[in-house]
Each structure stands twice: as structure tokens, then as C-alpha cells.
């Protein structure tokens, strides 16, 4: 397994801790639900679950298809985009409850959501290209 794919697995497990930690905080102090709920959900869904799917997908799909992974560089780019997008969106939701940020929090949320979406598109593209054999056959 390549190091960047391992980073997806490590990030996934770290986001599991962060997401459940936020859930614990909300259970202990319910007034913070207004601030933390969206970050909690996204750390678990896009952080834990999606990052684990990326890791497993990048590792398993080339082996199942018999083709090499199309691009390791795209995997690295996607790793950074997915993490920047997730952390940016989550922090924006936490601070956007403060009315002082208003319009700027909407702009920031849109930017980070676009970054996250771009990372997801790279994942899809890289795997479609892999499954279509564009990375070449795995040597026997």
C-alpha cells in the first residue's frame, strides 16, 4: 500500500476520534449542539467514512480490475483537497454561528465545499480511469 493511501486510513481514524469527541461534547453540554452539530456530522461522514472508502477504493479497485492505479499524483492532490475542504467547512460552520462573520462565512463555506467537491471528482475520475485500464495492466 502506498504511503498516501495509508494517510487516507490514518486521517479516517483521526476524524473518527474528532467526530465522536464532538458528539461527546454535545452530549455533555447540549447548548453547544447549535455550534457543533454540522461539524460533528461532516467529520464522521466525509472524514471517517469517506476517507476510509477512498483508502479502501484506491487499494482494492486496481487489484480487482487487474489494472494499475491511473495516477498516484491525483491521489495525493485529492488527499489534500478532501482534508482542506472538510476542515475548512467544519470550522466555518462552528464560527458561522457568530453573526459577525455573516456574508464572509457563506463565502468561506462555499469555497471549502467546492474544494471538497473537487476532491471527490478527482476520486471518481482516477477510479474510472483505473477501471478502464488507462493506468496499464498490473504486471504478473
Could you explain the architecture of this structure?
This protein is an all-alpha fold. The protein has one domain (3-131). It is 81% helix and 0% strand. The chain contains four helices and no strands. The chain has helices at residues 3-28, 33-65, 72-95, 102-131. The longest helix is centred in the middle third of the chain and has 33 residues, at 33-65. The protein is elongated, with a radius of gyration of 17 Å. The mean pLDDT is 93.
What's the topology here?
Layout: H1 3-28, H2 33-65, H3 72-95, H4 102-131
Helix pairs in contact: 1-2, 1-3, 2-3, 2-4, 3-4
Key words describing this protein structure:
single chain
Please report the total strand number as a whole number. 0
Radius of gyration: 17 Å
In this structure, how is the largest beta sheet organized? none
Number of domains: 1
Q: How many DSSP H or I helices?
A: 4
Helical proportion?
over 70%
**H and E string:** HHHH
Strand content: under 5%
* Mean of all residue-level pLDDT scores: 93
In terms of structural class, how would the helical and strand content be classed?
mainly alpha
Specify the overall morphology: elongated
Outline the low-pLDDT stretches. Answer: none
Amino acid at each position: 500500500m502506498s504511503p498516501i493511501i495509508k494517510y487516507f486510513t490514518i486521517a479516517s481514524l483521526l476524524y473518527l476520534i474528532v467526530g465522536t469527541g464532538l458528539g461527546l461534547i454535545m452530549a455533555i453540554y447540549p447548548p453547544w449542539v447549535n455550534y457543533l452539530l454540522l461539524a460533528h456530522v461532516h467529520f464522521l461522514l466525509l472524514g471517517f467514512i469517506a476517507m476510509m472508502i477512498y483508502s479502501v477504493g484506491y487499494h482494492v479497485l486496481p487489484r480487482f480490475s487487474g489494472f494499475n492505479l491511473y495516477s498516484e499524483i491525483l491521489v495525493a492532490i485529492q488527499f489534500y483537497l478532501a482534508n482542506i475542504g472538510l476542515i475548512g467547512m467544519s470550522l466555518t460552520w462552528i464560527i458561522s454561528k457568530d453573526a459577525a462573520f455573516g456574508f464572509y462565512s457563506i463565502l468561506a463555506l462555499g469555497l471549502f465545499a467546492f474544494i471538497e467537491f473537487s476532491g471527490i471528482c478527482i476520486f471518481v475520475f482516477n477510479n474510472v480511469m483505473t477501471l478502464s485500464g488507462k493506468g496499464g495492466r498490473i504486471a504478473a
